[in-house]
Design a protein that fits this description.
339 residues, six-stranded parallel beta sheet, alpha/beta, single chain, binds NADP nicotinamide-adenine-dinucleotide phosphate, globular, 2 domains, Quinone Oxidoreductase, Chain A, domain 1, Rossmann fold
Length: 339
C-alpha cells in the first residue's frame, strides 16, 4: 500500500523554526467518501502566514495544533474522485498541508485550474499571491497615473508583482529590499524606478531621494520601523495598504505603534488592512489580467524552489532571512495522475 508522508507540528517555534519543532510520520492514504476527491501534492506554497499559524497569535485562521499536519497552501492533482466538481487529472489549489496526499470536499475552499496551467503559477501570480498584490494595490491603494508607489519586500512574491503592476498603471515604482543584489534585480529586471536597501545606513535620506514627490501609495509587507519611515514621507491624500508585517511575525511581543501615524492626520491619509481572500470572488478576472501581462512580457515571475517535504520547515525561515527571490515553493511530486 502506498503511504502518505506527512509533516506535523511537534512544538511551537520560538523565533526562527528548528527542525525539532516538527516530526514526520506515514499514514495509509485516506479512503475517500461520496463528495470527496483524493489529491496528490505537487508543490507547496510557502507563505509568511504559516509562521503565524505555528504560533498562538490571533490570525484569520486558528493556530495549527500540536500534532496536526502543518497547514499550507499547495497545488495538487486529482488522482481519484467521488464528486462532481473534481475530475481525475484536474489541477486544484487548496490548503492541502505538508503532506503527499490530501482529501478535498466539494464545498472546501479549493480552486480549479485548467490542467495546462503551470502548477507553480497557481500558487503565485495566478493564485493567492496575485490576488493579494493586485487587490491590495488597485482596490486599496488606488494608484493614479504619475503617482509614487512604494512597496517593501520588493523582491519577494507579492512585492515584485505590486511594483510591476504599478509600472503598468503608469506610476513611479520604488522598492525596498534587504540587499544590494536584490535592489539591483528589482530595478534592472523588474523595471522599478528605484530600490532602497533597508539594511544600509541613511534609509531616510535614501527614501527622500527615491521619492522626491513623496509617497502616494505605500504597500506595506513588513511593518515595524520601515512602516514608520514610510508614514513620515506621505503625500497629501496618501493611501497605505497594510498587506503584512513580516518583521514582527517572529517576535514574541507586539511591536510598538508607529509614531509617525500622526502624519496621516496632516496629509488626510488613509491606512487600511486587507486580506486577499476577501477579493477571491474576483480571482478569475484578476488572474486573467495578470496572465495577459505575463504573456506580454510586462510581468516577470521569479521563484525560489526547494525540493522535498523535509525542506518545508527550513523554507519558512528563508522568508525571514530573505533567502528567497520571488515566490517560495517546495517541490513534492511531479504532475502525473497515478499515485
Ligand atoms: N494580506 C494578505 O492577503 C496577504 C497575502 C499574501 C501575503 N501577505 C503578506 O505579504 C508579505 C509578503 O509575503 P510574500 O509571501 O510575498 O513573501 P516574500 O515577500 O516573498 O518573502 C518575504 C520577504 O520579506 C523580507 N523580510 C523578511 N524579514 C524582514 C524584515 N525584518 N524587514 C524587512 N523585510 C523583511 C525578505 O526580503 P528582504 O531580503 O528584502 O529582507 C523576504 O524575502 C508578508 O507580510 C505576508 O504575510 C499578505
Amino acid at each position: 500500500m502506498t503511504m502518505n508522508r506527512r509533516i506535523l507540528l511537534a512544538k511551537r517555534p520560538v523565533g526562527l523554526a528548528a527542525q525539532t519543532d516538527f516530526r514526520s510520520d506515514e499514514q495509509p492514504i485516506p479512503e475517500i467518501r461520496e463528495g470527496e476527491a483524493l489529491l496528490k501534492t505537487l508543490y507547496l506554497g510557502i507563505d509568511p502566514t504559516i509562521r503565524t499559524w505555528l504560533s498562538t497569535a490571533k490570525s484569520y485562521l486558528p493556530p495549527i495544533e500540536i500534532g496536526e499536519v502543518v497547514r499550507s497552501a499547495g497545488v495538487c492533482r486529482v488522482i481519484e474522485s467521488k464528486c462532481e466538481r473534481f475530475k481525475v487529472g484536474d489541477l486544484v489549489t487548496h490548503l492541502c498541508g505538508w503532506q503527499e496526499y490530501s482529501v478535498c470536499t466539494e464545498d472546501s475552499f479549493a480552486t480549479l485550474f485548467p490542467a495546462s496551467t503551470n502548477p507553480r503559477h497557481t500558487l503565485g501570480p495566478l493564485g493567492s499571491t496575485g490576488v493579494a498584490a493586485y487587490a491590495g494595490l488597485l482596490y486599496v491603494g488606488r494608484p493614479k497615473e504619475g503617482e509614487t508607489v512604494l512597496v517593501s519586500a520588493a523582491a519577494g512574491a507579492t512585492g515584485s508583482l505590486v511594483g510591476q503592476i504599478a509600472k503598468i498603471k503608469g506610476c513611479r515604482a520604488v522598492g525596498i529590499a534587504g540587499s544590494d543584489e536584490k535592489c539591483r534585480h528589482v530595478v534592472e529586471n523588474l523595471g522599478f524606478d528605484a530600490c532602497i536597501n533597508y539594511k544600509d545606513d541613511g534609509f531616510r535620506e535614501a527614501l527622500k531621494k527615491a521619492c522626491p514627490n513623496r509617497i502616494d501609495v505605500y504597500f506595506d509587507n513588513v511593518g515595524g520601523w520601515i512602516l514608520n519611515e514610510a508614514l513620515g514621507r506621505l503625500n497629501m491624500g496618501a493611501r497605505v495598504a497594510l498587506c503584512g508585517a513580516i518583521s514582527v511575525y517572529n517576535e514574541p511581543k507586539k511591536p510598538p505603534g508607529p509614531a509617525n501615524y500622526l502624519n496621516l492626520i496632516t496629509v488626510r491619509g488613509k491606512m487600511q488592512g486587507f486580506n486577499g481572500m476577501d477579493h477571491w470572488g474576483k480571482h478569475a478576472e484578476i488572474s486573467a489580467d495578470i496572465a495577459k501581462w505575463m504573456e506580454e512580457g510586462k510581468i516577470r515571475v521569479d521563484e525560489t524552489i526547494l525540493e522535498g517535504l523535509d525542506e518545508a520547515w527550513r523554507s519558512v525561515n528563508m522568508l525571514f532571512t530573505g533567502e528567497n527571490i520571488g515566490k517560495l515553493l517546495v517541490y513534492v511530486a511531479d504532475g502525473v495522475t497515478e499515485p
